[in-house]
Amino acid sequence: MPRRLLPTLVALVLGLAGLGVGLGYLHRIFAAEREDARASLRSRREALEQYARASLGQALREGLEGARGTLAAAKEDPLVATPGLYLREQGEQVLPRLAQFDTAGDAPAKERYARLRAGTEVADEDEGPWSERLERMALVEQALKAKDRKATLLSLMALLQHRARFVLASTRDLPSLLVVLEDVAARGDVVPDLMRGLVRDGLLDGQGGGRLEGLQRLLLLKRSRFTPEDFEFLREKVSALSARVGVPVGDFEARARELATTPLPLPEAVREPLLVRSGWYLEPLQGADVRGLALDLPGLLAGLTREMRERGLLESDGRVALPGDAPVMTLASLPVAVESSAWARGEDALESRYRLKTLMLALCAALALVIAALAFVAQQRKYRFLELKSDFVATVSHELRTPLASIRLLAETLEWRVAEGADAKDYPSRIIREADGLGFLVENLLSFNRIDKGRWAPKLAPVRLDELVSHLRRDLESSAPVPVELTADVDARELNADAQLLRLLLANLARNACAYNTRSPVRLHVQTLSGGRVHFTDNGTGIPKPEWERVFGEFYRLSGRDGREVPGSGLGLALCRRIARLHGGTLRVADSSPEGTTFELTLPEYRSTA
């Protein structure tokens, strides 16, 4: 049989190899499709991130460009508000403005103001410009006391011209001008525009030399020349004077209060546009100069997210973020990330489709293996069936020919003996016994075929086991080829069974016990147990334990002791088990040894419905 199966096996192996190559190629195609889809998903995400990066950079540049005018004005005018603006020139922070004061412990400006107000200020011999300034202040004071408006104006202009010609220390210049303007505001009747210019807006010096700043701007510009105590004192005086002459003072007070104590902790070297995570955008100017703009980074990202949602570029749960924790980022390589559940859903969908396709390939491979295995088993069973059929035909032919030959031989011998007048009285019984054996074999074949095809419906009825044993004893007395002793330990219980089938079952067990036996007489014992169990025990040669289940197979025959062949069709025990199952019961080998075998038959007991 292996030689017969070799072509089938080769064909199956070649087919499976070809199928494996095809499935492997398909798997590579599916893997390539998954990678292409992933690349497409990454490309879309990168395109959105590039768009978000460009939009963010444009918004930052436009915001800073829009503040260019404010930066230029704030650089010249200390009263200009600079909310969120940054300017650094020659390594020094210009905006936001710093509170850079003189570190001296005393308050010279405050003390000089007090002496000027008390009239005790005296110039030293080497302080010519300061001495001249005091003289001009005295002329303004005299004109005010005389209430001479023209003289007051002329003496004040002379004082201003002196200020334009000589630059004095701020601790002298500003207190002296403050004292004069306070006196003018309190006693004189000077042109309002002139007072506004002197207190706030400033005046042209009239000599092409520049501009004379008003007190408010002058104090803010010269703040580094004063101690904190002087600055605070002068601020209060300037604010009071501004209020007296009707000059706005709110922005002056605001600029004085918002002076920063320390420079902003921003990068020193700015060679390209930078985004500082703390909330600043910086751009380099000429040299080491830097300008910048404070920004609400979360708000800016939220606005960009909203814009991209409105354009249909983001899902409702998508957002633009700046991942990582780098404190400083270049604008050209901002780590902008577009976060959205669509990416995860896309990845999951890709993986699901890939797993499904891979599973389909695995199922196809498994199905192919199963089909190949089934085809191989079917082919094997086919050849096995042919062998069994051949063996069955040979066995049955032999089993039928043997009793037929015996019957013919006995009949010829009987004829001869009768013709010769010899004694032949035992020959008819021998002929009957051989005919009974032949009939039993035919009955086994027909019964097995009917049960196997499902064409035998058992006629269930109450059957007494002691009656079955009695029938078995009579059958054995007339048909057994060897002496048989049958004993029984049965009660009067009834089984719910087909009597004809049970007789056939017991007869097959008994004939097997006679065939596989070397003792004389053959001893059989039938015993009933609880639960519908029946034990059938013989004193035969026994069944090896590995064969306990195989002996119930079709056409399976054990060899006799010393390997001798035992006659039979190999259907007896197979038919017995099928009869037991047809009744809803079981038949098995309960015990076996060289001293004999015990079969256990379990059948449902008959229970009366009355």
What does this structure look like?
A hairpin with a 3-residue loop joins strand 14 and strand 15. The strands form five sheets. Strands 2-1-7-6-5-9 form a six-stranded antiparallel beta sheet, covered by helices on one side. It has a five-stranded mixed beta sheet with strand order 12-14-15-17-16. A two-stranded antiparallel ribbon has the order 3-4. The protein contains 16 helices and 17 strands. With 610 residues, it is an alpha+beta fold. Among the domains are: 85-90 and 266-338, no CATH class; 109-257; 458-602, Histidine kinase-like ATPase, C-terminal domain (Heat Shock Protein 90, 2-Layer Sandwich), CATH 3.30.565.10. The two termini are 60 Å apart. The chain has helices spanning 2-66, 68-76, 108-118, 128-146, 149-165, 170-187, 192-201, 215-221, 228-245, 250-257, 297-310, 341-420, 427-452, 465-479, 499-515, 572-582; strands at residues 85-89, 92-95, 203-204, 211-212, 274-276, 280-284, 290-294, 319-321, 328-330, 337-339, 461-464, 484-489, 494-497, 522-529, 533-538, 586-593, 596-602. Residues 395-607 form the Histidine kinase domain. It catalyses: ATP + protein L-histidine = ADP + protein N-phospho-L-histidine. This is histidine kinase.
Number of helices: 16
Uncertain runs: none
Which strand-content bin applies to the residues? 5-15%
For the secondary structure, the number of strands is 17
Largest sheet: 6 strands, antiparallel
Determine the N-to-C terminus distance: 60 Å
Q: Helix content range of the residues, please? A: 55-70%
Quaternary structure: single chain
Radius of gyration: 62 Å
